[in-house]
């Protein structure tokens, strides 16, 4: 068999193996997300410094979460498996909420801050049609690690992160945090947010 044919066979094998790895990661991540769904006591969101996709310097809790109803997920722009799905879900939720989209803050936290500059996050957000009200944030590695821990997540290994969406309602008295499967149909997240909106603020 000629060298060219051998090269083609090896390349196809490598591509196939990579596709299988990506599919396995996505399936494993979805299973983890489903196992972690539910409610947990309201915690303390770390008020670490971050930058959004416009390059603005913010403090995560006081500027993005305090006094708001928010949905938070964790992504990184070089991810080719679950993160594009998470981005697509948030974009769909904004559209499904329609006129109510302004009552919710969507936040995507990069767990690969060494590579995810504000410019990269802006590019990634544009690819999904991110509308106003969806903040994509990055920051120093230590600050992102602290933030992830405060939210019950881990940023240690971006490639194995769990695709959860965390719902936090700080419009009134503390409410339990809700964890949803970030890969579920967008209508599930939209319904959860509408349900939270319908609750009286105490």
Task: Describe the fold and architecture.
This protein is of the alpha+beta class. The protein has a single domain, classed as Glutaredoxin (3-Layer(aba) Sandwich), CATH 3.40.30. It is 44% helix and 19% strand. It is built from six helices and eight strands. The protein has helices spanning 3-35, 60-65, 82-97, 118-128, 141-150, 186-198; strands spanning 38-40, 49-52, 57-59, 69-75, 105-110, 134-138, 164-169, 177-181. Strands 1-8-7-4-5-6-2-3 form an eight-stranded mixed beta sheet. A hairpin with a 7-residue loop joins strand 7 (164-169) and strand 8 (177-181). Helix 3 (82-97) crosses helix 6. The protein is globular, with a radius of gyration of 18 Å. It starts with a helix and ends with a helix. Residues 1-33 have low confidence and may be disordered.
Break the fold down into its secondary structure elements and pairings:
Elements: H1 3-35, E1 38-40, E2 49-52, E3 57-59, H2 60-65, E4 69-75, H3 82-97, E5 105-110, H4 118-128, E6 134-138, H5 141-150, E7 164-169, E8 177-181, H6 186-198
Parallel strand pairs: 4-5, 5-6
Antiparallel strand pairs: 1-8, 2-3, 2-6, 4-7, 7-8
Brief sketch in words of this structure:
This protein is an alpha+beta fold and 202 residues long. Helices cover 44% and strands 19% of the residues.
Rounded to the nearest angstrom, the distance between the terminal CA atoms is 75 Å
Name of the CATH class:
Alpha Beta
- Tell me the number of helical segments per DSSP (H or I, 4 or more residues long): 6
Oligomer: single chain
Helix content bin: 40-55%
**Architecture (CATH level 2) name:** 3-Layer(aba) Sandwich
Radius of gyration: 18 Å
Report the portion of residues in β strands.
15-25%
Secondary-structure class: alpha+beta
Trace the largest sheet across and list its strands.
Answer: 1-8-7-4-5-6-2-3
Global morphology: globular
State the order of secondary-structure elements, H for helix, E for strand.
Answer: HEEEHEHEHEHEEH
How many beta-strand runs?
Answer: 8
Question: How many independent structural domains?
Answer: 1
Mean pLDDT: 84
CATH H-level homologous superfamily name:
Glutaredoxin
Q: Fill in the CATH topology.
A: Glutaredoxin
**Spans where pLDDT lies below 50 across 5 or more residues:** 1-33
């Amino acid at each position: 068999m000629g060298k060219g044919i051998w090269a083609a066979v090896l390349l196809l094998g490598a591509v196939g193996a990579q596709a299988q790895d990506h599919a396995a990661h996505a399936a494993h991540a979805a299973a983890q997300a489903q196992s972690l769904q539910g409610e947990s006591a309201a915690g303390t969101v770390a008020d670490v410094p971050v930058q959004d996709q416009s390059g603005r310097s913010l403090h995560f809790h006081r500027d993005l979460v305090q006094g708001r109803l928010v949905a938070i997920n964790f992504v990184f722009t070089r991810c080719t498996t679950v993160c594009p799905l998470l981005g697509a879900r948030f974009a769909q939720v904004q559209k499904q909420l329609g006129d109510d989209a302004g009552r919710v803050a969507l936040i995507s936290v990069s767990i690969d801050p060494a590579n995810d500059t504000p410019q990269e996050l802006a590019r990634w957000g544009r690819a999904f049609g991110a509308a106003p009200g969806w903040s994509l944030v990055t920051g120093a590695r230590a600050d992102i690690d602290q933030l992830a821990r405060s939210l019950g997540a881990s940023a240690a290994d971006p490639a194995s992160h769990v695709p959860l969406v965390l719902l936090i309602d700080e419009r009134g008295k503390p409410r339990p945090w809700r964890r949803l499967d970030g890969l579920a149909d967008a209508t599930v997240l939209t319904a959860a947010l509408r349900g939270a909106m319908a609750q009286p603020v105490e």
